[in-house]
Write a structure and sequence with these properties.
disordered C terminus; five-stranded antiparallel beta sheet; three-stranded antiparallel beta sheet
Length: 435
Amino acid sequence: MAAGLVSSDALRGHITELEHAEVGLGQEDESGGRRRDDDDLTEILHQSHGDPYGTMTPDKLPPGVLRMQKENYLRYLRTTLEQIKEEEAKAAALQKELESSSSERSMRVSRVQRHLRRALVALDDDIGEEVMNPPSGSVDYYRRVGSSGAVAAIALFDRGDLHVASTGDCSIVLGSLSENDTWVATKLTQEHSAENPAEASRIMEEHPGEPGVLRDDRLLGMLAPFRALGDYKFKWPAEQIQASLGSEAVPPNYSTPPYLTAEPEMTVHALTPHDKFLVLGSDGLWDMMTPMQVIRLVGEHLSGKFVLKPLVVPEESDVRLGDIASVLRRRRHGLKLKPTDSNGATHLIRSGLGGSAYGMDHSKLSQALTLPAHMKRLFRDDITVTVVYFDAQYIKNLEARSLAPDDHLSRDSNGGNGDGNGNKESNSTKRSVRG
C-alpha cells in the first residue's frame, strides 16, 4: 500500500535498488556463509514489508523463499508503478486541459472587452464627427447635441460570463440567492465621479498643477461624472469647441484637454445558478435606494408576482397530489408579497418614488410624478431601470457542458413579465422627465 503513496520517480528508484540486490541471491561466499547481497535484499524487504515476528533474517529465510518474496514484491511494485504512471498521465492531461480552457477563456474575455471598448469609444467619436460636420441647416441642433452628454452601462452575456462595461455613474447590481435563501447584492460597477477616490486620483494625475480641475466635486466645477459620451466641451481643443459649439462653450480654466473620456471600465463575472437577476439603473435610482434594497425589492417581487398568473395544473397523468400541494404553498406564500406591478422595473420605480417606512405612500408618488418640468431636477434625477432575469437551468447546463449560448435572454425592449426564464423588464421615468 505504501508504494501507492509515492511518485513514479521514487517508486522507479526503489525498483532499481531492489533489482540490483539480485546478484548472487542465495549463493554462499568464499567462507561458506551467505553473500552480502542477500543481506542487502533482506534489509530492503524488511523496510518495505516490516518484520513483526522477527523471521525475516538471512539465517532464518531459505534462499528459495527469499527469491520468491523478492519476485512477488517486484511484481507488486511494477504493477503499482504502471497504475501511478497512468494516474499521473491523467492528472497531467487534466491540468493541460484546464490550462487550455483557462487560456481560451482569458482570450475570449479579452476579445469581448476589446470589442465593448471599441464600440463605446467609436460611438462617441461618430457623434463628435457629426457635431463637427453637421448637415446643412442643422448647425443649431448639433450644437445642442455636442453640448449634451450621456452616461452608459452595458451588460453582455457570453458562454457563462457576464461582461459589464460602464462609462459614468450608472450602476449594475447582481442579485443572487445564497445557500440559506437570503438575497445577496453584488455591485459590478464603480461610479466615475468624486465619490470614487481612484477616479478622482486619475483626474488629478492626468492634470497636475491644476487645482481647479476638481471643484465642488465636479469636473472643472461643472460636470459630475468624470466619464461620459458627448459633452465635447470637456474633450476637444479650445479652438474646435469655439468652431463647433460657440466661443461661449469653452469652460473656464480650460488648459489641458481632454478632461473627459468615454473610455469604459470593464469587469467580468462568471455566472452560477445562484445568480438570479441583474439590475441596471441610472443614478436617479441609486440616489433613492441602496443596492441591497433594490435586490430585496426585486427578489420579493419575483416571489410575489407568481400569484398574478392563473393557477395551471399540469395535464400530465403522473401528477401527484404532493406536487399540487407544493404549488399551492408557493401561491399562498406569494399572496403575502403580491405586487401591484407585473413588471419588476416599474415596481422599483414605484417603490423608489413613493416608498416609505410604512409602505407605499401614494400621495408622495403622485407628487413626484406631477412636478412641474422646471422643478423636477431640484427634487430627483432621471430614473431608467432594466431588470434581466437569468435561467438557472441554462446556467447549470453551461457549467456541466461547454454549450454555446442561445436565446436565453429575451430581446423584448418594451418590457414584459420576467418569469425567471431569462426575460427582461425595462422602465423609466422618461414619460415624466427627460429620459
